[in-house]
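Review form for a predicted model. The reviewer records the input and the model, then writes brief findings.
Reviewer: anonymous (R2)
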Amino acid sequence: MSAFEDLRPRLAGHTVLIVGDLMVDHFVFGQVERISPEAPVPVVRFAREEYRLGGAANVAHNIAALGGRVEIVGVVGNDPEAERLRADLVVLSIGVKGLVTDPDRCTTRKLRVVTTRNQQVARVDYEEDREVGGAVEAEVIARINGLADDADAILVSDYLKGVVSRAVAAAAIAAARRRGVPLLVDPKVPHIGYYKGATVITPNHHEAEAITFMRIRTSEDAVAAARLFRERAGCESVLITRGEHGMTLLGPDGHAELQAEAREVSDVTGAGDTVIATMTLALAAGSPLEDAARLANRAAGVVVGKFGPSTVTIDELN
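Model under review:
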Protein backbone atom coordinates (compact mmCIF):
# COMPACT_ATOMS: atom_id res chain seq x y z
CA MET A 1 0.00 0.00 0.00
CA SER A 2 1.41 3.41 -0.94
CA ALA A 3 1.90 6.23 1.53
CA PHE A 4 -1.23 8.07 0.33
CA GLU A 5 -3.87 5.34 0.05
CA ASP A 6 -6.73 5.29 2.57
CA LEU A 7 -5.08 7.85 4.82
CA ARG A 8 -8.06 8.76 6.96
CA PRO A 9 -8.71 5.33 8.52
CA ARG A 10 -5.00 4.57 8.77
CA LEU A 11 -4.08 7.69 10.75
CA ALA A 12 -7.22 8.28 12.79
CA GLY A 13 -7.21 7.39 16.46
CA HIS A 14 -3.51 6.77 16.97
CA THR A 15 -2.07 8.61 19.97
CA VAL A 16 1.08 10.73 19.99
CA LEU A 17 2.63 12.11 23.18
CA ILE A 18 4.41 15.41 22.52
CA VAL A 19 7.06 16.81 24.85
CA GLY A 20 8.37 20.28 24.11
CA ASP A 21 8.25 24.04 24.08
CA LEU A 22 4.74 25.48 23.85
CA MET A 23 4.22 28.89 22.27
CA VAL A 24 1.54 31.38 21.36
CA ASP A 25 2.03 33.03 17.97
CA HIS A 26 0.45 36.49 18.05
CA PHE A 27 0.03 38.33 14.75
CA VAL A 28 -0.80 42.03 14.48
CA PHE A 29 -1.82 42.93 10.93
CA GLY A 30 -1.91 46.43 9.53
CA GLN A 31 -1.30 48.71 6.57
CA VAL A 32 1.94 50.55 5.92
CA GLU A 33 1.44 53.85 4.17
CA ARG A 34 4.33 56.01 5.43
CA ILE A 35 7.62 56.12 7.26
CA SER A 36 7.68 57.52 10.79
CA PRO A 37 9.07 61.07 11.14
CA GLU A 38 10.57 59.99 14.47
CA ALA A 39 12.78 57.20 13.07
CA PRO A 40 13.32 55.43 9.72
CA VAL A 41 10.72 52.76 10.46
CA PRO A 42 7.34 52.00 8.87
CA VAL A 43 4.18 53.17 10.61
CA VAL A 44 1.71 50.28 10.76
CA ARG A 45 -1.95 51.22 10.99
CA PHE A 46 -3.67 48.46 12.96
CA ALA A 47 -6.24 46.36 11.11
CA ARG A 48 -6.68 43.15 13.12
CA GLU A 49 -4.88 40.63 15.29
CA GLU A 50 -4.78 36.85 15.35
CA TYR A 51 -3.50 34.18 17.71
CA ARG A 52 -2.23 30.76 16.62
CA LEU A 53 -0.69 27.78 18.35
CA GLY A 54 3.09 27.77 17.98
CA GLY A 55 6.08 25.55 18.70
CA ALA A 56 5.15 22.17 20.15
CA ALA A 57 1.51 23.32 20.26
CA ASN A 58 1.59 23.78 16.48
CA VAL A 59 2.97 20.24 16.16
CA ALA A 60 0.03 19.01 18.23
CA HIS A 61 -2.40 20.99 16.07
CA ASN A 62 -0.97 19.34 12.95
CA ILE A 63 -1.42 15.85 14.38
CA ALA A 64 -4.98 16.62 15.46
CA ALA A 65 -5.78 18.00 12.00
CA LEU A 66 -4.74 14.65 10.49
CA GLY A 67 -7.05 12.73 12.82
CA GLY A 68 -4.54 11.71 15.47
CA ARG A 69 -5.06 11.86 19.21
CA VAL A 70 -2.60 14.04 21.11
CA GLU A 71 -1.38 14.50 24.66
CA ILE A 72 1.14 17.28 25.23
CA VAL A 73 3.67 17.87 28.00
CA GLY A 74 5.13 21.34 28.39
CA VAL A 75 5.56 24.32 30.69
CA VAL A 76 3.50 27.51 30.80
CA GLY A 77 3.47 30.55 33.01
CA ASN A 78 0.72 31.76 35.30
CA ASP A 79 -0.54 34.34 32.84
CA PRO A 80 -3.31 35.12 30.30
CA GLU A 81 -1.27 33.58 27.46
CA ALA A 82 -1.31 30.23 29.29
CA GLU A 83 -5.09 30.45 29.64
CA ARG A 84 -5.45 31.22 25.94
CA LEU A 85 -3.12 28.36 25.00
CA ARG A 86 -4.93 25.86 27.20
CA ALA A 87 -8.35 26.91 25.88
CA ASP A 88 -7.23 26.62 22.24
CA LEU A 89 -5.80 23.14 22.86
CA VAL A 90 -9.02 22.00 24.54
CA VAL A 91 -11.12 23.22 21.60
CA LEU A 92 -9.02 20.97 19.34
CA SER A 93 -9.44 17.99 21.71
CA ILE A 94 -5.71 18.01 22.48
CA GLY A 95 -4.98 16.63 25.94
CA VAL A 96 -3.72 19.20 28.45
CA LYS A 97 -3.04 16.93 31.45
CA GLY A 98 0.67 17.35 30.78
CA LEU A 99 0.78 21.15 31.12
CA VAL A 100 2.96 22.21 34.05
CA THR A 101 2.65 25.76 35.42
CA ASP A 102 5.83 27.56 36.44
CA PRO A 103 4.91 30.90 38.10
CA ASP A 104 8.50 32.11 37.68
CA ARG A 105 8.37 31.98 33.89
CA CYS A 106 6.14 33.56 31.26
CA THR A 107 4.35 31.58 28.58
CA THR A 108 6.38 31.95 25.39
CA ARG A 109 4.72 34.39 22.97
CA LYS A 110 6.01 35.58 19.62
CA LEU A 111 4.44 38.85 18.56
CA ARG A 112 4.81 39.55 14.84
CA VAL A 113 3.81 42.81 13.20
CA VAL A 114 2.75 41.97 9.66
CA THR A 115 1.45 44.03 6.73
CA THR A 116 -1.80 43.12 5.01
CA ARG A 117 0.37 41.63 2.26
CA ASN A 118 1.85 39.21 4.82
CA GLN A 119 5.22 40.97 4.96
CA GLN A 120 6.76 40.85 8.44
CA VAL A 121 7.80 44.24 9.82
CA ALA A 122 9.03 43.28 13.30
CA ARG A 123 8.93 40.50 15.89
CA VAL A 124 8.93 40.73 19.69
CA ASP A 125 9.64 37.59 21.75
CA TYR A 126 8.26 37.22 25.28
CA GLU A 127 10.10 34.26 26.75
CA GLU A 128 12.17 32.74 29.53
CA ASP A 129 14.51 30.21 27.95
CA ARG A 130 16.47 28.86 30.92
CA GLU A 131 16.23 25.08 31.25
CA VAL A 132 13.71 23.73 33.70
CA GLY A 133 15.11 22.32 36.92
CA GLY A 134 14.14 21.26 40.42
CA ALA A 135 10.46 20.68 41.11
CA VAL A 136 9.32 21.87 37.67
CA GLU A 137 11.64 19.47 35.85
CA ALA A 138 10.56 16.62 38.15
CA GLU A 139 6.90 17.38 37.44
CA VAL A 140 7.50 17.42 33.67
CA ILE A 141 9.15 13.99 33.91
CA ALA A 142 6.28 12.70 36.05
CA ARG A 143 3.76 13.87 33.43
CA ILE A 144 5.74 12.11 30.68
CA ASN A 145 5.75 8.85 32.62
CA GLY A 146 2.09 9.19 33.47
CA LEU A 147 0.93 9.83 29.89
CA ALA A 148 3.29 7.54 27.94
CA ASP A 149 1.30 4.36 28.61
CA ASP A 150 -1.26 5.17 25.91
CA ALA A 151 1.18 6.53 23.32
CA ASP A 152 1.72 4.92 19.93
CA ALA A 153 4.67 7.30 19.39
CA ILE A 154 6.48 10.02 21.34
CA LEU A 155 7.68 13.29 19.80
CA VAL A 156 10.16 15.76 21.28
CA SER A 157 9.75 19.29 19.88
CA ASP A 158 12.82 21.24 21.03
CA TYR A 159 12.83 24.99 20.48
CA LEU A 160 15.48 25.82 23.09
CA LYS A 161 12.90 27.50 25.32
CA GLY A 162 13.82 25.45 28.38
CA VAL A 163 11.49 22.47 28.55
CA VAL A 164 13.80 19.92 26.91
CA SER A 165 16.52 19.46 29.51
CA ARG A 166 18.86 16.47 29.41
CA ALA A 167 16.78 14.68 32.05
CA VAL A 168 13.48 15.45 30.27
CA ALA A 169 14.81 14.15 26.94
CA ALA A 170 16.15 11.02 28.66
CA ALA A 171 12.76 10.42 30.31
CA ALA A 172 10.95 10.66 26.98
CA ILE A 173 13.41 8.29 25.28
CA ALA A 174 13.19 5.81 28.16
CA ALA A 175 9.38 5.93 28.06
CA ALA A 176 9.36 5.17 24.34
CA ARG A 177 11.75 2.29 24.88
CA ARG A 178 9.53 0.83 27.60
CA ARG A 179 6.50 1.12 25.35
CA GLY A 180 8.32 -0.20 22.30
CA VAL A 181 7.18 2.80 20.24
CA PRO A 182 9.11 5.21 18.00
CA LEU A 183 10.50 8.45 19.38
CA LEU A 184 11.15 11.35 17.02
CA VAL A 185 13.00 14.60 17.72
CA ASP A 186 12.87 18.00 16.04
CA PRO A 187 16.32 19.06 17.31
CA LYS A 188 18.35 22.08 18.22
CA VAL A 189 22.12 22.14 17.80
CA PRO A 190 23.17 22.80 21.44
CA HIS A 191 21.16 19.77 22.60
CA ILE A 192 22.52 17.18 20.18
CA GLY A 193 23.94 15.20 23.11
CA TYR A 194 20.46 14.88 24.64
CA TYR A 195 18.90 12.72 21.94
CA LYS A 196 20.85 9.45 22.08
CA GLY A 197 18.52 6.52 21.52
CA ALA A 198 15.96 8.41 19.41
CA THR A 199 14.31 6.57 16.52
CA VAL A 200 14.36 9.50 14.07
CA ILE A 201 15.82 13.02 14.29
CA THR A 202 14.73 15.63 11.72
CA PRO A 203 17.32 18.44 11.41
CA ASN A 204 17.11 21.04 8.69
CA HIS A 205 20.19 21.38 6.52
CA HIS A 206 21.57 24.31 8.56
CA GLU A 207 21.36 22.25 11.77
CA ALA A 208 22.92 19.24 10.04
CA GLU A 209 25.79 21.39 8.79
CA ALA A 210 26.37 22.89 12.24
CA ILE A 211 26.49 19.50 13.93
CA THR A 212 28.62 17.71 11.31
CA PHE A 213 30.82 20.67 10.26
CA MET A 214 30.05 19.75 6.65
CA ARG A 215 28.76 21.83 3.76
CA ILE A 216 25.64 20.35 2.19
CA ARG A 217 25.35 21.33 -1.45
CA THR A 218 24.52 18.05 -3.20
CA SER A 219 22.58 14.88 -2.49
CA GLU A 220 25.86 13.07 -1.89
CA ASP A 221 26.84 15.72 0.67
CA ALA A 222 23.48 15.27 2.41
CA VAL A 223 23.86 11.49 2.66
CA ALA A 224 27.38 11.83 4.05
CA ALA A 225 26.20 14.45 6.56
CA ALA A 226 23.28 12.24 7.58
CA ARG A 227 25.66 9.36 8.31
CA LEU A 228 27.90 11.54 10.46
CA PHE A 229 24.88 13.15 12.15
CA ARG A 230 23.50 9.70 13.02
CA GLU A 231 26.85 8.72 14.50
CA ARG A 232 27.16 11.87 16.60
CA ALA A 233 23.55 11.89 17.77
CA GLY A 234 23.36 8.17 18.48
CA CYS A 235 19.98 7.76 16.76
CA GLU A 236 18.62 5.11 14.40
CA SER A 237 17.54 7.28 11.45
CA VAL A 238 17.93 10.84 10.19
CA LEU A 239 15.69 12.96 7.95
CA ILE A 240 17.43 16.13 6.74
CA THR A 241 14.99 18.70 5.39
CA ARG A 242 16.58 20.75 2.60
CA GLY A 243 13.96 23.28 1.55
CA GLU A 244 13.55 23.49 -2.21
CA HIS A 245 16.02 20.59 -2.56
CA GLY A 246 13.65 18.18 -0.83
CA MET A 247 14.66 15.77 1.92
CA THR A 248 17.33 13.16 2.55
CA LEU A 249 16.34 10.11 4.58
CA LEU A 250 18.93 7.79 6.10
CA GLY A 251 17.43 4.73 7.73
CA PRO A 252 18.73 1.39 8.99
CA ASP A 253 18.33 -0.10 5.49
CA GLY A 254 19.84 2.68 3.41
CA HIS A 255 19.01 6.14 2.15
CA ALA A 256 16.39 7.79 -0.05
CA GLU A 257 16.14 11.17 -1.75
CA LEU A 258 12.74 12.88 -1.69
CA GLN A 259 12.13 15.68 -4.18
CA ALA A 260 10.39 18.82 -2.91
CA GLU A 261 6.67 18.89 -3.71
CA ALA A 262 5.87 22.56 -3.07
CA ARG A 263 3.92 24.23 -5.89
CA GLU A 264 4.17 27.74 -4.47
CA VAL A 265 6.04 28.94 -1.38
CA SER A 266 4.30 31.57 0.75
CA ASP A 267 5.87 31.08 4.19
CA VAL A 268 8.14 28.37 5.62
CA THR A 269 7.23 29.24 9.24
CA GLY A 270 6.20 26.05 11.02
CA ALA A 271 6.99 23.76 8.08
CA GLY A 272 9.31 21.68 10.27
CA ASP A 273 6.44 21.22 12.73
CA THR A 274 4.26 19.81 9.96
CA VAL A 275 7.01 17.48 8.77
CA ILE A 276 7.67 15.87 12.13
CA ALA A 277 3.97 15.79 13.08
CA THR A 278 3.02 13.96 9.89
CA MET A 279 5.93 11.56 10.04
CA THR A 280 5.32 10.72 13.69
CA LEU A 281 1.62 10.02 13.19
CA ALA A 282 2.37 7.85 10.16
CA LEU A 283 4.91 5.81 12.16
CA ALA A 284 2.43 5.57 15.05
CA ALA A 285 -0.03 4.07 12.56
CA GLY A 286 2.52 1.46 11.49
CA SER A 287 3.74 2.93 8.20
CA PRO A 288 7.23 1.97 6.99
CA LEU A 289 9.87 4.63 7.57
CA GLU A 290 10.20 5.69 3.92
CA ASP A 291 6.42 5.89 3.41
CA ALA A 292 6.17 8.07 6.53
CA ALA A 293 8.90 10.36 5.20
CA ARG A 294 7.23 10.65 1.80
CA LEU A 295 3.95 11.55 3.45
CA ALA A 296 5.75 14.21 5.53
CA ASN A 297 7.37 15.54 2.36
CA ARG A 298 3.99 15.95 0.72
CA ALA A 299 2.61 17.67 3.82
CA ALA A 300 5.52 20.13 3.75
CA GLY A 301 4.76 20.89 0.11
CA VAL A 302 1.23 21.88 1.08
CA VAL A 303 1.92 23.87 4.25
CA VAL A 304 4.59 26.18 2.79
CA GLY A 305 1.88 27.56 0.53
CA LYS A 306 0.10 28.97 3.62
CA PHE A 307 0.90 31.94 5.83
CA GLY A 308 2.30 31.40 9.32
CA PRO A 309 2.09 28.25 11.43
CA SER A 310 -0.55 26.16 9.66
CA THR A 311 -1.89 22.65 9.36
CA VAL A 312 -2.54 20.16 6.57
CA THR A 313 -5.70 18.10 6.17
CA ILE A 314 -6.15 14.56 4.91
CA ASP A 315 -7.98 15.88 1.85
CA GLU A 316 -5.05 18.16 0.99
CA LEU A 317 -2.61 15.27 1.24
CA ASN A 318 -4.77 13.12 -1.01
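Findings: The chain has a mean pLDDT of 92.
Further findings: The longest strand covers residues 22-35.
Recommendation: see findings above.
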